[in-house]
Amino acid sequence: MSLYLQPRQSGAAPTPYERKLAGAIEEVFGTGVHHLEGLVKGLNALGIHSPGGEAWTTDTFTDEIRRMGA
Amino acid sequence: MVNRLRKAALTGDEIFATGMRDQWHAVCPSDFVARGDMKKIRRLGEDWLLFRQSDGTLRMLADRCPHRGAPLSQGQHLGDRVACQYHGVQVDGGGTVVSVPGMPGCNLEGKRLVTSLPVREVAGAVLAWFGTDPDAEPAPLELPERLTDEGISHFLCYAEWKAPWRFTLENLLDPMHGAFLHRESHSMFGGETSAKFRIRETDRGFFFEKTDQRGVNFDWVEFCRTGIDWVDLEIPYPPTAGPGGSFGIVGMGTPIDAETTAVFFWRYRRVEGWERDVWRFLYRTKLEERHWVVLEQDRTMLEAMAFDADQAENLYQHDLGVIRLRRLYRAQAEAQAKSLQEA
Ligand code: FES
Ligand SMILES: [Fe+2]
Question: Which residues in chain B are contacts of A24 at CB distance < 8 A?
Fold first, then answer.
């Protein structure tokens, strides 16, 4: 009997862009900033922009993260 | 006359080894069986056929044809029934023989000869009622509130470990291993390496908790019996995981057989709105992998333990939760064996 051991169960592997964005989000959170405005500002300051290349606003960020977090 | 499989009554030792009867157990993730598919699966030491009808309804049958005992799992999915590969006898999802093609009108037709377990699908998993009396109604099932609360988001992580089910549950009733086994991990690096524990009774089980530390490491666990056995526990995330505080785990362990266990960990967090979306995004991109590393530390330890590791222990105060759990299951296994013998 082969036993089921599958590290990834939550969906498709992240794309390189998603990995980069996730790393930046962790970096901002790691500074203790846990509110939306601070996060968006932090991402823009790191130069991690939306997939379209624009700076984030709270609206574009919440839309995009809703899609990617689904 | 028809024959139905009657096994010798299970002994207390057998029940203790292969799992408690007359309760619900988690079986596998729901997506293991797609619409129109079948899957052979072993649980509580017996072989079963999971079979999803073309209307989406999931069924769980004993994997044994009522004609001459061939495994139904080798047969053919016919939408709302299975045809045995050996001589074509057809059994529906409720376990009733609906056709004997080799001998139309045969007296097997219309008889319910195959055990069919009541199943439910909850939070991405299949749950089934393993009754000792196949005709008795299942007991009510109260679901872990963390899995039904709208304000809580969760992911199921499922795995199969080569370890007895009791080890997997005892591991969850042993918070202190967090500060040692998982010291090198994303979530359990903090806190004291000594503690004093207490048991706190609830109306559905008990808490086993540190008296001198909370919210720093794996500091408490609640054991719950609500028609299904599960634990609830919480572990803090580091600041990099963002808003929402600690994550929790609803854990279950279902015996596959005496040496193998299907483990279910629903990792959950109380998050809504963008916080929920960010957590789910980070889980998929970063956290799932780190959680997995922690789980592998558990698996490696439990699989390396001798099957009779619990036969010559020297326990101390931190093991009160484990002792309590064992006593409870041991007593229940004996009680179930006794009532089976009397039946
Ligand atoms: S054994 Fe299944 S049809 Fe004969
Ligand atoms: Fe652990």
Answer: none
Does the beta carbon of B338 lie under 8 angstroms from any beta carbon of chain A?
no
Amino acid making up residue B40: K
For tokens 């999915």, name the residue: B77
Q: Average pLDDT, stretch B261-285? A: 98
- In this prediction, residues B144-168 reach a mean pLDDT of 98
pLDDT for the residue A70: 79
Amino acid, single-letter form, for residue B279: W
What is this model's ipTM? 0.98
A51, HSE (Cβ side, Cα atoms, 13 Å)? 11
Cβ atoms of B61 and B95 within 8 Å: the answer is yes
Residues 18-47 of A with CB under 8 A from B: 18-19, 21-23, 25-27, 29-32, 34-36, 39
Domain ranges of chain A: 34-69
Please judge whether B285 and A65 are an interchain contact, meaning their C-beta atoms are less than 8 angstroms apart.
no
- What are the angstrom distances between the C-alpha of B35 and each of B38, B52, B79, B120, B162? 9, 5, 9, 15, 29
Say if CB B47 and CB B64 are below 8 A apart.
yes
Please state which of the ranges B134-138, B252-256, B320-324 shows the lowest mean pLDDT. Answer: B134-138
- In one-letter notation, the amino acid at residue B315 is L
Pick the residue from chain B with its C-alpha nearest to A12.
B284
pLDDT digits (tens, 9 = 90+) for B199-212: 999 999 999 999 99
Distance between CA atoms of residues B164 and B147, nearest Å: 26
Give B168-191 pLDDT, tens digit per residue: 999 999 999 999 999 999 999 998
Q: How many helices (H) and strands (E) in chain A?
A: 3, 0
Question: Rounded to whole angstroms, how far apart are CA atoms A54 and B174?
Answer: 49
B89 lines ligand 1 (CB under 6 A): yes
Mean per-residue pLDDT for A13-39? Answer: 97
| Strands of B247-257's sheet in order across | B153-161, B260-269, B247-257, B229-235, B220-225, B205-210, B197-202
Give the residue, by CA position, lying nearest to ligand 1 atom 3.
B87
Residues near B200 by beta carbon (within 8 Å), at least 6 away in sequence: B206, B207, B208, B209
For the cut 60, the answer to whether the pLDDT of residue A24 exceeds it is yes
B112 Rama sector, left if φ>0, alpha if ψ -120 to 50, beta otherwise? beta
Confidence of residue B6 (pLDDT cuts 50, 70, 90): low
HSE-up of residue B216 (Cα within 13 Å, Cβ side): 15
